Amino acid sequence: MSNMKSVLITGASTGIGRSSALRLDSEGFQVFAGVRKPGDGDGLKKASTGGLIPVMLDVTDAKSIAAVVKTVSEKTNGELFGLMNNAGLTGGGPVEMVPISKIRSIIEVNLISIFAVTQAFLPMLRKSKGRIINTGSIFGLIALPGRSIYAATKFALEAISESLRLELRPFGITVSVLEPGAIATEIWRKGSASTDEIIEQSQPGIYELYEPLLQFYKKSLRNKNIWHRKLLQIVSFMRSRQGSQNGIMLSVMTQNSCFGSNDYRKASGIGLFIRLYTNNCIPTVKEIEIRGS
Known about the structure:
Rossmann fold, 7-stranded parallel β-sheet
């Protein structure tokens, strides 16, 4: 095991985290897969080549993080080649309708945990001159109505990653941020359940004010193709208001795993389109928002 590059992935129970854990395991990495339920860990172990190690990890709990640091350190001689901060919560809705307690929980998992986990593993990453991968979102590039809470955490993640990559460069540690678009994972079911919860807990008069927006999101979460088309419609509208006639050239994301690439940002699917668009048109987008158009 001492010759294997070790990687810790948080939020590895489902979706991008699970797929990344299994992919890296198949490529010969020693993967520590952070999960919250023993059953999820067992499922990952069975689906792996046999070398993957599930670790019980609650990214909001300092004792849980410390226990995983101890486990990883003992099994890797104190070196960690890669950290993938992937754990996160979806959810949101119109600001007026979302309880402050829910806002705090989303920020705790999506944002505060990035600092907590990264701080804890930096000594091990520095020793191996490793790398950090932060899972962002297209909502870290453009915020849509009803998604300000989730987008706020993903915008902040962009800032953290931008700053951290410069802080850690002298130590040989690289930092990258993923900016995925809509991907068929458990986040859709969880997002739909979150919207239902907000609706159930809302005051009737307030819900009626935002009903069209909430119903749009519920429909979008049931049909990912509609979600793609709506995002493209929004971007197309903004681009037409900006008046640019220049086409946007889309590049193809490499097939290699992120731990084999030094790219700072890696966008995929519609996330790539939105990132390239916002890089060129953000001032006009802000102007549109201020005007309320």
